[in-house]
Amino acid sequence: EYVCKGNVNIILSAPHGGSLIPNDVPDRTEGICIRRSDENDTLLDKQFYNTKLVKDIHTDEFTENVANELSERWNFKPFIIIGKWHRQIVDFNREIREGTLNHPEAVSAYENYHLNLNNAISHVNQLFGKGLLIDIHGHSQGDYTMIGYMLSSNQLNEDDLSHSSCTTSIESLCLSNRNECIRGEKSFGTRLEQ
Is the pTM of this model over 0.90? Predict the structure, then answer.
């Protein structure tokens, strides 16, 4: 679902928070590429996938709350794309065959999600030249916020990131102080926790 056309160069995407489970679309069976249909199903390539079916709890609501806070505090309206289909039917973060098991309705939902995401990226590029895409997920590790910035846990645990050779997904926003940008008092993660 394309919820909001924004006025700032931020895109919020929540692919795994949906709860829609259409009756006529079979589940993706956990861990394997088999749908509940006959064995002569020509839509499948008989390849096995490590499928995940668990919904990321409250990520759709969290995404909307982040957007509301940005709007109320600074009148920033990010672009918002939320996957409304349950992950047991469509996984929007996998390649299309694994994410849909090639079921036509699931493929249509998948393509629509990615069309909306690509449209938001195009709008941001046209209006601002560059932007920040935040792909929001849940986890079962505890009640805290984790932001990876495309860094490994070893890189994130380095004492001083300013001398590290790693490149982050927010490198252009960090200016001269990478430590402050990633884990300081004004970092995105700190502000989300507030």
Answer: no
